[in-house]
Amino acid sequence: MRSHKALPFLLIAPSILVLLSLVLYPMAFALINSFYFWNLQTSPTPMFFNGLANYKMVFQTTPFMATLKNTLLLSVLGTFAQFSLGMAIALLLNTHVRGMTFLRSILIMPVTVAPVVVGFLFRYLFAPEGGILPWLLKGIGVPVPPQGMLGNASTALLSIGIADTWQWTPFFAIVLYAGLLSISDDMTDAARVDGASGWSMFWHIILPSLRPLAAFLVMIRFMQLFNSFDLVFVLTGGGPGTSSRTLSYNLYQEGLVNYNIGLTAAMTWLIVIIVTIIINIYIWLVLREQEV
Fold first, then answer.
1. pTM of structure
2. pLDDT class for 292, splitting at 50, 70, 90?
């Protein structure tokens, strides 16, 4: 009997060991070294204990607050745009119009492209000379900065968001479309018989039915966008200045360019704390809405 009771624990033991080695150990390593002065340009090992000095230097010597603002803008607005467009596409796919089967098959393609490749693609699309996007904007009367959208401080972050939205909106569309298929036809047919309009049906039947799925999608995508690095690195390099620098790019700059490991470790834990607070508030709000 004891062997049968121990079997489940033995089966999950390898997964627990992998989790401990790949997640907990690096986080503990970063936490310990966040209290030490350690720069690889001066020493291959931590030099001395300096308490909370690294955490203070994060705010004093790096553009942490500016990158936090950029990251929140990109994460919140990007997630909202991708969810809204994905929902619209999912509703369109659910209309059973001719040609939708072919559209569904090609919709997944942007998601399969590596973010670095997407970055290089949009560098050409955003090119001031010969880029199709500036040409289209000029054609409809929208002014384009002389230095290009990627080279202008007011449009660089927006351009990154456009590229990311192009890649990840189909992901929302496909998953939400699967959610729409799970909604009972009896429920929607009854609403139509009762005279519910399209908007009323969406707001009171479709959206509540998709709420658990949508809440999960929004949370996962927000966390992914909060850690954006690839597109920032390829498209703008965090510039001009720090106008499009995100927290992940800030970590790269301090850790792999300036080799300031202690400072980077402190910044890592600040980001972990910020994300944990945001996600817990989000989960609490979603659960509260479901209980109501």
1. 0.87
2. very low
